[in-house]
Amino acid sequence: MPVSTSPQGTPLWQRRTTRAQWLQYAAWMMGMSLFLLCWKVISDNTMWVFVEDAGRQGSDLISRMLPPRWEYASVLWKPMWDTLNIATLGTALGIMMAFPVAFLAARNTTPHPLVRSVALTIIVSSRSINSLIWAMLLVTILGPGVLAGIIAIALRSIGFVGKLLYEAIEEIHPTPVEAISATGASRLQIMNYGVLPQVMPAFAGISVYRWDINIRESTVLGLVGAGGIGLQLNASINSLAWNQVSVIFVMIFVTVLVSEWVSARVRHAII
Amino acid sequence: MLTLTGVGKRYPTGDRALDDIQLSLPKGQVMALIGPSGAGKSTLIRCVNRLVEPTQGSIRLEGTELTTLSGNRLRHARRSMGMIFQEYALVDRLTVMENVLSGQLGYVGFWRSFLRRYPTEAVAEAFRLLERVGLPHAIDKRADALSGGQRQRVGIARALLQSPKLLLVDEPTASLDPKTSRQIMRLIRELCAERELAAIINIHDVALAQQFADRIVGLRAGQIVFDGQPSELTSDILTTIYGEEEWDTSPEPVEEVESIEEIGHHHGQRPYATPRPLTGLASGGAR
Amino acid sequence: MSRTDTLARQQAARQGQWRRLPLIESSRLRWALVLSGVVYLALALASVEVNWARVAEGSGRAINFLGAFMQPDFVSRQSDIWAGLLESLTMTLTSTVIGVLLAIPVGLGAARNIAPLPVYTVCRAIIAVSRTFQEIIIAILFVVMFGFGPFAGMITLAFATIGFMAKLLAEDIEDLDWRQVEAVRATGAGWWQTMNHAIQPQVMPRLIGLSMYRLDINFRESSVIGIVGAGGIGATLNTSLSRYEYGTSAAILLIIIAIVLLSEYLSSYVRRWTQ
Description:
The complex is a heterotrimer of chains A (about 270), B (about 290) and C (about 280). Chain A is about 75% helix and about 0% strand. Chain A has about 270 residues and is mostly helical. Chain A has a two-stranded antiparallel sheet with strand order 1-2. With about 290 residues, chain B is an alpha/beta fold. Chain B has a single domain (about 25-50, about 70-265), classed as 3-Layer(aba) Sandwich (Rossmann fold). Chain B contains eleven helices and ten strands. A six-stranded mixed sheet of chain B has the order 6-7-8-3-9-10, with helices on both faces. Chain B starts with a strand and ends with a helix. Chain C is an all-alpha fold and about 280 residues long. Chain C is flat. The two termini of chain C are about 50 Å apart. Chains in contact: A-B, A-C, B-C. At the A-C interface, helix 1, helix 3, helix 4, helix 5 and helix 6 of A face helix 2, helix 3, helix 4, helix 5 and helix 6 of C.
């Protein structure tokens, strides 16, 4: 924060130097023009007539959704059960696979740098690809159904759980590990006694957190045929039964809120 | 029993931590290793059980060359060297009993240790050790529920459960208050006598070293600059080890062990580290 | 654990008998939990129907697909990939900017310590709705309203960004250092001045970090909302998968992974730079 003297001799305070000021202006200008450029691309690809019509379409949509056809809910219990199973079994499968991957990816527990980069590649690929894409892929391979959903959720969870867990492993205290090594323990024993107790709370917390996210994600997997309540959603939308869609929305909303509450409670209890 | 010949350690950064160390330790001798921070004390004892790899020289324990061991043979060698740490290095989320039993890890297989199915003799011995260090009531407490002195006792019990021939002790008292420090040092001393263990104790506190060790080795910049009886440690020698400083803050001459004990009681624990009288008072007052 | 139990365990340990303490003390509760876990697992696994004939048929495709990763085909659908990618990237950027700008007032309104109750309730409701529904569900609604194309996608992502950013921002504001705010207020500063001098400096670095993170998420999401017609590379990917053109699909997936990696690297750089 430089102070300079004005021609009149009074000290002037500026937040930044002139050079920094200009750099900042330039950065803002660049950001603005980039944003406008992107906006132009989008606007070129948009049929503005439809957008102008949006208000009417929206109110039309709402009037079709209301009142919800509540009796449709009785059909939804089985798909909801499937959705919960996809999330839970998928999370379980995912954390089972993520666990060893995280140990191979953490700098302080990896057996070899080469193994580490392979593990990191697995984590990045799994994280980059949305569970819906995994589901699309698996549906073409395994056929439509709950199994594809479970595996899609599992594959996506590896990256999330793996990343957070390997970061937790890298942050453990090194001295207990040193002490366990000094007793003549083998590699696996060092992991079991020195590393595992230190990362267990983090691991449990991460898993529950991912389960909560997975509930949310498994509600839409049905859109591409991977089972759960998304199938009903897809069918209702295709038949323009918007008063059924609103029932599904209410169900999803309640389930997600409950799962979020459960996950928050469990994480609170662990930490 | 333990012989170090020409041991050196150079870190990849080029820093020389140890330089041509010659040292030999007979059975049952308690040796204190003193020296300023960064003199290589920790590196030296970690070279012995290979937590740090020495870059040259030979280390022999009862005729076994330690520097070339690997894999299972290294694990076997490590069993006979118990180590005690400055920050206790207990696994916080395990119970006291599990921490002590981890001293047996070199003897049992993975699945036994994973399921905590330790041999009966090992459990009985672990309990005897906990009784010996005065913590039989704490077996099911978690390690992080204990006080500093209690944790160090658990650390000692863990090291002894390895049935070691040699104890490597790294700053056992640096995190403890003066009274507990003396209790811990006395305990280590007694246990060494009971079991005829040799011990290398890294220690900052010259007074404690003089009181509890049979022999003192002074390390400076990775080299041994003093090796002798506690009574031979004069302020001149302390100057060679630690550099120029006003050592005689007490009216008593430093040679007499009795007087050192007096200093320990009344005047802060580190008579050598008091350049100004006010600091000495401050540390004494803090006690 | 009672005192007698403790003594009994000590006595047993003296004899060499010791077992690890169970995680849950009451044995009845322990078994009930194990039992309910097993029952759930059995029920859940029983409800998974697998058509093994279909799986066997598909496994050939799985091998084809893995093979395609060895030889991704960037060329034959080059113009489609390029157009989809451009749409995804522009959607990502505009939606993040708009979403973050809108999330700031909502986040301020959802912080209990600075907002009055009615405002708080409304803002929390917006956050709850935006966070509960997957982007793709919201995309369906917006496609119906705004027609096919990237505009609907952009609105979708912006809406999802509001919920994400506003929640974290509100939490940040709720546990910021209140003494600084009081110090600024004590100088006689108005509401805007308090925001600018006491709250903004405390939450700004994290806000920038979160925006970068959200940019990354929005790109990943933009690769799927195309499935329901909201523009972006997802449409291209969907088409290539349904035509079994695995070479093109593999190419698109590799591009997505590369861009996510790049943005992660960039965001870690920006975060270091802002701190």
